[in-house]
Q: What sequence folds into this?
């Protein structure tokens, strides 16, 4: 019997793995279900959650034979209930229902709710001690220390899903992590990589939503256009990997083939490469510590021809500098940064704020928060309180900017 056949047989004899997906209706959630749907016998879907899209969530729950479908928005409960009529799938809605869904015992949870709404449910999944595939960035950006303390306390296995961090996780040999000199995250540069400041001033949401390589949710696509996403990822990397902020770097790599480079003290650089398709890092987190087949385009380096790299332009993309300052100040500024950025992106999408003003609003909110006496939050409640205050501050500064 070949090794592959023996491996496939050994998997068949295992009971299906109990999994839940928080944020099932989003881009990451749908990609996760795409992978699971290709080998349904291996998975038992416990809970699927979404925000408001009852129709899609119900369709997903039916297609994947889930036990439970939960929407965060209680006003959509009746719609969800009606869509699930005649099935044995339980319907629920509201924040408490979401937390109860997380408490259902599973072996693996995909944490893919966007924004700070993902903080409580993801932290709860960590407290349950299940393996957590972490896509949500805010847990690390807004509440990094608290989140990582909870991970250490529960002994949960955290598997980063963000492509750069999945790449770093794959390239780091924990036995020699002391010898890491530098970790470099790559950034595609987004749709404005070659635009002048003058052109960027008038960029529309439609321009910003045209990402050259990746297909993602709206918020993240705008963050990729301002490079705030890479700033948030520096903060994520700091919490995930055994390095200091000054050991983290960013390089622009328009092809999005190399995702992260880990440099060791002997000069070796170990990098991970793959086509820009989130199903690779999701598959890695699903199969870890094994590997599974994923339906992604295989790399043909001869066809790609060249991989190019360039330094980021901090003048056109100040978000990188602002995020690094927030990380280094270690005073709660990353919580403020994240909250202000969510308000700014929302205003940009609603055409109330120009692209370049996103970073102006974020920087002004951070300055105002420091003047008001910023200190590092010590609990999730303090994070959520600071998040709320920062949003109010950003909203009031927004009215002065527009
Ligand atoms: P998305 O906007 O496509 O989906 C977000 C999901 O969260 C949806 O299921 C939505 O219904 C749910 N949601 C939104 N608001 C909610 C609320 N208030 N309460 C409960 N649920 C809510 O986003 P996405 O692109 O799938 O990204 C999900 C997370 O993964 C984000 O934090 C993002 O930064 C991160 N991430 C995404 C990618 C990517 O390629 N899409 C890559 C790396 C990291
Ligand atoms: Mg990323």
A:
């Amino acid at each position: 019997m070949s090794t592959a056949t023996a491996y496939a047989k050994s998997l068949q004899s295992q009971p299906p793995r109990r999994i839940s997906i928080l944020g099932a209706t989003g881009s990451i959630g749908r990609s996760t279900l795409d992978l699971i749907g290709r080998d349904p016998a291996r998975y038992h879907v416990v809970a699927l959650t979404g925000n408001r899209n009852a129709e899609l969530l119900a369709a997903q729950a039916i297609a994947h034979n889930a036990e439970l479908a939960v929407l965060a928005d209680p006003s959509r409960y009746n719609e969800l209930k009606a869509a699930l009529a005649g099935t044995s799938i339980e319907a629920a809605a509201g924040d408490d229902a979401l937390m109860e869904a997380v408490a259902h015992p599973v072996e693996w949870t995909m944490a893919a709710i966007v924004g700070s709404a993902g903080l409580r449910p993801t932290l709860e999944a960590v407290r349950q001690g299940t393996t957590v595939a972490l896509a949500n960035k805010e847990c690390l950006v807004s509440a990094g220390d608290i989140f990582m303390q909870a991970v250490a306390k529960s002994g949960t296995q955290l598997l980063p899903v963000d492509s750069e961090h999945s790449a770093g996780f794959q390239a780091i040999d924990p036995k020699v992590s002391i010898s890491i000199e530098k970790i470099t995250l790559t950034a595609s540069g987004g749709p404005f990589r070659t635009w002048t400041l003058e052109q960027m001033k008038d960029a529309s949401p439609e321009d910003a939503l045209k990402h050259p390589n990746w297909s993602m949710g709206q918020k993240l696509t705008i963050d990729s256009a301002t490079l705030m996403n890479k700033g948030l990822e520096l903060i994520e990397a700091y919490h995930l990997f055994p390095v200091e902020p000054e050991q983290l770097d960013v390089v622009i790599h328009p092809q999005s083939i190399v995702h992260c480079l880990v440099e060791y003290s002997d000069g070796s650089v170990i990098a991970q490469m793959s086509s820009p398709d989130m199903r690779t890092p999701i598959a890695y987190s699903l199969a870890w510590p094994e590997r599974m087949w994923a339906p992604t385009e295989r790399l043909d380096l001869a066809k790609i021809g060249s991989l190019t790299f360039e330094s980021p332009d901090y003048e056109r993309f100040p978000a990188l500098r602002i995020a690094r300052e927030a990380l280094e100040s270690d005073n709660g500024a990353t919580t403020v940064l994240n909250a202000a950025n969510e308000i700014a992106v929302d205003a940009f999408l609603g055409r109330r704020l120009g692209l370049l003003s996103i970073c102006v609003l974020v920087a002004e909110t951070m300055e105002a928060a420091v003047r008001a006496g910023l200190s590092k939050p010590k609990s999730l409640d303090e994070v959520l309180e600071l998040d709320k205050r920062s949003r109010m501050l950003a909203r009031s500064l927004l009215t002065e900017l527009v």
In short: The pocket of nicotinamide-adenine-dinucleotide (ligand 1) is lined by residues 23-29, 50-51, 72, 112-114, 117, 135-137, 162, 214, 216-217, 220, 278 (CB under 6 Å). The radius of gyration is 21 Å. The longest strand covers residues 43-50. The mean pLDDT is 95.
